[in-house]
Amino acid sequence: MAAAVTDEQAAIVATVRDFVEREVIPTASELEREDVFPDAIVAGMRALGLFGLTIPEAYGGAGLDLVTYALVVEELARGWMSVAGILNTHVITAHLITAFGTAAQRQRFLPRLASAELRAGFSMSEPGGGSDVQAIRTRAERRGDAYVVNGTKMWATNGARAGLVATLVRTATDIEPSHRQLSCLLCEKGPGFEAGRSIGKLGYKGVETTELLFRDNRQPAHNLLGGEEGQGFRQMMSGIEVGRINVAARAVGVARAAFEHALRYARERRTFGRPIAEHQAIQFKLADMATKIEAARLLTHRAAARKQEGRRSDVAAGMAKLFASEACQEVVLEAMRIFGGYGYSTEYPIERLYRDAPLLIVGEGTNEIQRLIIARGLLAGADD
Ligand SMILES: Cc1cc2nc3c(=O)[nH]c(=O)nc-3n(C[C@H](O)[C@H](O)[C@H](O)COP(=O)(O)OP(=O)(O)OC[C@H]3O[C@@H](n4cnc5c(N)ncnc54)[C@H](O)[C@@H]3O)c2cc1C
Fold first, then answer.
1. Are 124 and 165 in contact (CB under 8 A)?
2. How many helices (H) and strands (E) does the chain have?
3. What single-letter DSSP state applies at residue 19?
4. Whose CA is nearest to atom 45 of ligand 1?
């Protein structure tokens, strides 16, 4: 855990850690292998109130801050990265509605999101590209009191089970600056809007990743986030910072799992008459792994605190996501080396962590894009 956590945060972490030990870790590897959605785990997360963790109390949530959220995500990901991903798009969309929604939108959606009676997705990416957000093609045309939506989205985490998807759409083609052509529509599943095929993946199994198909789908005009066209790019960029905090915290959790396994194994496994933990080469690996994890956690909490304060957070969230995901990849590989041949075996969880980690380098904006965001922000003096 990071340096200064409050008593309340420590109690929440203890509760979630206990849940993960009892409900997640014993079943994660099997569910992962079978690529089965973890219904029982999600029911447990719901009972703990995790889907409403950051939603204001006035709407039935716990009203907790993003540092607490990061701590919770780390604990979940330590058990199984996928369950932290199930939370991610939900929390991003809840943030969007809380921060930018009209009073009616908050009233209509937040209580059901807080209870997880309604689960939410977040969709910007399309088959033609994810990094170049402003090139999206999904179109929403205003006709009377509705938007008619046409297009295909790609890589929608929770795409099949989310009843509500915060979707980036093009509402105009001729306005400058061009980002004002984009809006965020709170799309409810219904005729003409459904999940398409589910995409097979290297890791990050259990949670579905799907296409989203919009075919002359009608969404009520009052589902336009904030009620004003042209705000979607700005809104989604704010939302994705919450997503980057989730990814960074997830990376800390996955790396921590790998480290804990490696530490235990290094104490037990003996070569040349002594535990491998007594070989300096192994000790150096453990020292580097733990140092990277701690640094990643500190960057993550810094970004979360900054975002919570309402300050500009593109650089901080980008740094946290970049550093934590790269560190996670390195730590997991080192854990695999410490495990020797057993690291490559499906009988140990290391190979799962090794397959999960690379997603964090790509998801929520690739690390190449994070470097662009960080550099642009620094050059613009945005990280004061
Ligand atoms: C399992 C999974 C779940 C996902 N869930 C969601 C979700 O819920 N919602 C959602 O909207 N998206 C989601 N994504 C999509 C993800 O955000 C995109 O994959 C990511 O943004 C990259 O987009 P792309 O795959 O189209 O790659 P591209 O944009 O085609 O990029 C390809 C390569 O080019 C590099 N590149 C691109 N532009 C530049 C540049 N200007 N300078 C340098 N390098 C560049 C990229 O870094 C990358 O290495 C998910 C992805 C995965 C794999």
1. no
2. 11, 9
3. H
4. 368
CA pair distance 80, 29, nearest whole angstrom: 8
How long a stretch of residues is the chain?
384
| Two structure tokens written together for 47 | 């009972």
The span from the CA of 153 to the CA of 139, in Å, is: 11
Q: C-alpha angle 77/58/17, rounded to 5°? A: 20
Checking if the pLDDT of 3 tops 90, the result is no
Residue ranges and CATH numbers for the domains of the chain are: 7-119 (1.10.540.10), 121-231 (2.40.110.10), 234-379 (1.20.140.10)
Q: Which residues line ligand 1 (CB under 6 A)?
A: 89, 122-125, 129-131, 155-157, 201, 204, 209, 359, 362-366, 368-369, 372
Of 235, 58, 41, nearest to 50 by C-alpha is 41
The string of pLDDT tens digits covering residues 48-101 is 999 999 999 999 999 999 999 999 999 999 999 999 999 999 999 999 999 999
The angle formed by the CA atoms of residues 65, 251 and 242, to the nearest 5 degrees, is 35
- Classify 209 as helix, strand or coil: strand
In contact, 327 and 292? CB cutoff 8 Å: yes
Which pair of tokens denotes residue 49?
Answer: 């109130």
Q: Best of 167, 197, 362 to mutate for ligand 1, by most ligand atoms within 8 A of CB?
A: 362
User: What are the strands, taking DSSP E only, across 17-119?
Assistant: none
| Residue ID of nearest Cα to ligand 1 atom 7 | 156
CB–CB of 155/137 below 8 Å? no
Token pair 């004061």: residue: 384
Element (H, E) at 214: strand 209-220
User: 13 is written with which tokens?
Assistant: 């972490």
